[in-house]
Amino acid sequence: MLTTIARIGQHVGQEVRLGCWLYNKRSSGKIQFLQLRDGSGFIQGVVVKAEVAEEVWENASQLTQESSLYITGSVRADDRAPSGYELTVTGVEIIQIAQEYPISLKEHGVDFLMDHRHLWLRSPRQRAVMAVRSEVIRAMYEFFHENGFVKVDPPILTPTSAEGTTNLFHTKYFDEDAYLSQSGQLYMEAAAMALGRVYSFGPTFRAEKSKTRRHLIEFWMIEPEMAFVDHEENLRIQEAFVSHVVQSVLKNCERELKTLERDTTKLQNVTGSFPRISYDDAIKLLQEKGSEIKWGDDFGAPDETMIADHFDKPVFITHYPTEIKAFYMKPHPERPEVVLCADMIAPEGYGEIIGGSQRIDDPELLEKRFAEHELSEEAYRWYMDLRKYGTVPHSGFGLGLERTIAWICGLDHVRETIPFPRMLNRLYP
């Protein structure tokens, strides 16, 4: 019976067949211990020389790291095994004896591993990260499906920018200028006016020459937009959304988090309402700690970390100055110098994972913002139409997938959170 390692527990006491690769091997002379992987997990296969045909023993002896094979054996439960099960091998059918594998079971430098990213993905740690990534995406879709959102796909090639063109990749669209999308938000606002509550999920591109552990050139964003939702309800939805995702990972990726040696105690706190601190109070807090930051400055990574350290779960920093935020954010009705926005800062030094706001719904104010930000009214005419024909209060947010995964997994750098990272000096493989 052909099965997978992930389903091996369904076949205790039965003989099964696996398609797999050899991850590692050790031998005591009369017993060979084969560490096997098939993409769904890892399991040990035990080959006892006295109990198998000579051909089976010889085939097992030939196997090199990452050789591919079909293996047959009986499944038995074993509490000592990481997977909880072990395979008593009765047959080994070689598919290919792999050449000397570049990534040996020892320490390698990051550049070497990134050059061999296509192979590094096979390691237990990287497989665990990708499995968590998959679960995060599944949980996101689940949350939106259960809460009445409709998925809408915005374009990747755009004629304009959501937040200015300084950090966009420029290309030619036949005889017109075009850009790779840095956000689908503006298009999602249009979709929200048609469908009520919507979300998009796809790749976005930022041409920022940044080398920090939080930045990628190409990354994935989930961007909900909601008609008839104000700033306060927007924050409540974000709390529920992030809590759902984190709790789903804790429930469904216990083995992967263990592989990553992730301390999950802080993740268990991610539920219910999240603490909030206003921009004003955050500035005071930083100044009390000796920072020279002043009102009107944006927060850097060290500032966000210093603020987050005061809380045991994600924290909202609310009501940033109007001048340092995007043109589409709605001013506070009683304090027009600040906007109805919030950044969600993850604990443990992982920084901003969500940026969101209530959007401007007043057409006159939006026209004023176009002039202040020197935006082309012709290019954004369609966006203005949303305010001319049935404008309503509406809000939205964007969550960066890779930063969220880095936080949940406890990773040092976002480069491990995406299968093939694109960074300032890396376009290969």
UniProtKB/TrEMBL annotation:
Residues 132-429 form the Aminoacyl-transfer RNA synthetases class-II family profile domain. This is Asparagine--tRNA ligase. Keywords: Aminoacyl-tRNA synthetase, ATP-binding, Cytoplasm, Ligase, Nucleotide-binding, Protein biosynthesis. It comes from the Bacteria. GO terms for molecular function: asparagine-tRNA ligase activity; ATP binding; catalytic activity, acting on a protein; nucleic acid binding; transferase activity. GO terms for biological process: asparaginyl-tRNA aminoacylation. Transmembrane segments: none annotated. SUPFAM superfamilies: Class II aaRS and biotin synthetases, Nucleic acid-binding proteins. PANTHER family: ASPARAGINE--TRNA LIGASE, MITOCHONDRIAL-RELATED (PTHR22594:SF34), ASPARTYL/LYSYL-TRNA SYNTHETASE (PTHR22594). Its EC number is 6.1.1.22. Homodimer. InterPro entries: Aa-tRNA-synt_II, aa-tRNA-synth_II, aa-tRNA-synth_II/BPL/LPL, Asn-tRNA-ligase, Asp/Asn-tRNA-synth_IIb, NA-bd_OB-fold, NA-bd_OB_tRNA. Belongs to the class-II aminoacyl-tRNA synthetase family. One of its GO terms (cellular component) is cytoplasm. It catalyses: tRNA(Asn) + L-asparagine + ATP = L-asparaginyl-tRNA(Asn) + AMP + diphosphate + H(+). It is found in: Cytoplasm.
